[in-house]
Amino acid sequence: MDDKLIIKGIEFKSRLWVGTGKYKDFEETRKAIEASGADVVTVAVRRVNIFDRKSENLFDYIDPKKYRILPNTAGCYTMEDALRYARLAREAGVSDLIKLEVIGDEKTLFPDNCATLKATEILAKEGFIVLPYINDDPVMALRLVDAGAAAVMPLAAPIGSGLGIRNPYNIKIILEQAKVPIIVDAGVGTASDAALAMELGCDAVLLNTAIAGAKDPIAMAEAMKHGVIAGRLAYKAGRMPRKLYATASSPIEGML
Amino acid sequence: MKIKLNGNETDLNDNLTVAGLLETLRIEPARVAVEVNLQIVKKCDFQNYVLKDGDAVEVVNFVGGG
Predict the structure, then answer these.
(1) CB–CB of A29 and B64 under 8 A?
(2) Phi and psi dihedrals of A138, rounded to 5?
(3) Is A225 in the active site?
(4) Using the beta-carbon criterion (under 8 Å), do B31 and A57 form an inter-chain contact?
(5) CA distance A7 to A3
(6) B64 at the A interface (CB within 8 A)?
């Protein structure tokens, strides 16, 4: 079945995108990502550990030739910082993809809308393929597309909260208006949350803690893979209408 | 000369290039980005960019993140 996700000419095999943070060790990261079937992995930009050069590198376990690397600007609270991290990420990496996060509040990790919008505009002009993280806000989604976002990534719930899709109606409105792919990013807790996002019509789901924070991350990674595939198929299939009363599945005709 | 390397005061030989610094630190240039005084140094300039006393140098790479 030809059902590929394409963003600015880049073809993605998987509709499940995963983060690489919070795992016990690199080996667990590698196994979980393999089990998830994802071909996109997010990474953060941080200082090289100068003093411990024997410490292992993420890319010893996650082969950048095998996975598409999506750097983020996590931890940035100002537009200037986000631009700085994005530019460093492009220089360290191999592509123009950037998952733009400009955080506005430490406790909720909700985005700073104004700074995210301005940063999207600047980075898009510099040739970045900007994938901004936003609240489940249909108006912001439109503004970001006008500013040059290649896709928009509304949260399901606060980052790392695992609360699932708190406002499916807003996500639905964002989807109805969408001129670019919509990727639910953050807040997914378990496989049914990922399936719901896909059933609503989202183009992909990005998650990290739901796998890394599960009791058995590798099993949860596999569950997420199936959840996303099932949700996508159900969306394409088109669900039956909801009815208040029962309709028998077996015929009355031929009954004794 | 003294430079500030990833936030730490560091003593280095004079006339060291960015490429030389990475070699000293045994860092694979392909996997990092380097910034000197808030300006990115392109990988193709690593060989020619000579560091000066007082420079603030940042060497970053990718780590696990969401």
Answers:
(1) yes
(2) -60, -35
(3) no
(4) yes
(5) 13
(6) yes
**What residue ranges define each of the domains in chain B, with the CATH number in brackets?**
2-51 (3.10.20.30)
Helices and strands of chain A, counted as H and E runs: 8, 10
Q: Please tell me which residue of chain B has the smallest CA distance to A41.
A: B66
Among candidates B7, B35, B64 on the partner chain, residue whose Cβ is nearest the Cβ of A20: B64
Structure tokens at A171: 């996500």
Catalytic residue among A65, A66, A99, A125: A99
Closest to A70 (Cα-Cα) out of A5, A139, A115: A5
**Strand A97-100 to strand A129-134: parallel, antiparallel, or no bridges (unpaired)?**
parallel
**pLDDT tens by residue, chain A, 256 residues:** 578 999 999 999 999 999 999 999 999 999 999 999 999 999 999 999 988 777 788 998 999 999 999 999 999 999 999 999 999 999 998 789 999 999 999 999 999 999 999 999 999 999 999 999 999 999 999 999 999 999 999 999 999 999 999 999 999 999 999 999 999 999 999 999 999 999 999 999 999 999 999 999 999 999 999 999 999 999 999 999 999 999 999 999 999 9
Q: Which residue of B has its CA nearest to A186?
A: B66
- Taking the whole predicted model, whether its pTM rises above 0.90 is answered as yes
A204 beta partners = A183
